[in-house]
Amino acid sequence: MILRMACLVVMLLSVLPLAQAEETTSAIPQRELVVGVKDAPPFAVKGADGAWSGLSVELWRQVAKAENLKYRFVEQKDMPQLIRETAAGNLDIAIGAITVTVDREKVLDFTQTYYSTGTGIAVPVVSVMNWGTLRRAMTSFNFLQAIVALIGLTLGAGILVWLLERRQNEYFGGGVTKGISSSVWWSTLAMTQRSSAEKGPQTILGRFVATIWLVVSVITIAVFTAGVTSVLTTSQIQGTITGVSDLASVRVGTVKGTSSEGDLIRRKLKFQPYETARDGLKALRAGRLDAFVYDKPLLAWAIRQGYASRLKLLDISIEAQNYAFAVPPDSPLRKMLSIAILDTIQKEEWTEARIRYLGEDSLSSP
């Protein structure tokens, strides 16, 4: 009796995994899947003939082929509609430039991430000096520090000469106020090489100090001039935006209803929303914006297509972004697709696709 029950237990344990596997397989729809997609180069690109291409589309085709899935694409007008229709179950899968965010995770599920990058910042290429660039350069910490140092040296040299010359030189005499003001004025003229010999120090020690100050002032002015030139040149090349903190004081734009908009809202930054990235980049090129924030690979693609001579992408990111497919909540497709994605992105075909759509630099991203 005990032996018979043991055999039954073994048989049940053997059959249970098979039953679970059959249940999971049967839960996956055998019908034609409805795949939602939104035009977002280079992840999803709609051709003139209506055919879809792009990095996300190519990955989906490889996954669908590996899993023998039948499907049809249904275009969505914008990202909010793509998310909304997927969350409602009207779409079986959503593909394109879809990033994983907290708000989206609350209403739908995501597959395994297939590409990671960040939110990028596009700015105009500065070719001429403008008032914004000049103001930023002149109020920078390094510039103000150099000004303070220069004034300090001038005051120090002037006071030292006054201490040495006030009793022997009428020009530096006449009371403390007059003497110090005259000596500081002399040191200023000496520094700029505008002093006259008859109004200079008369004592041996005073002339010795004056000689040292003249040499030091020449070097100081040379260093200061080089520093100012460097600051202005750097500002001219980089423009008025060098980091995320600069976005608080400039005109910023982004695409409404996207994760980039959410990034700006969380950072409490003011921005102008645009319907598409193209509209925003046109405004940036026309000078109506100082910076345009959007998904980094999408910005890089758009700039390469027609703005390379006027706009550039900064080598910084605001927030990390992970791209994945979206499915309705508790979709039976999620696990199967995640496994297929993990398998596909290890293959050579995926590496070639990333290079083709995103360039060699994309291989440095996870």
UniProtKB/TrEMBL annotation:
Record domain Solute-binding protein family 3/N-terminal: where: 32-361
Membrane topology recorded in Swiss-Prot or TrEMBL: Multi-pass membrane protein
Membrane-crossing residue ranges in chain numbering: 143-164, 204-228
SMART domains: PBPb, PBPe
Lineage top rank: taxon: Bacteria
Signal peptide interval: 1-21
Transmembrane helix as UniProt keyword: yes
All copies of domain Ionotropic glutamate receptor C-terminal, residue ranges: 32-352
Keyword field contains Transmembrane helix: yes
One annotated GO molecular function: ligand-gated monoatomic ion channel activity
Chief place of localization: membrane
GO-annotated cellular components: membrane
Protein's name in the database: Transporter substrate-binding domain-containing protein
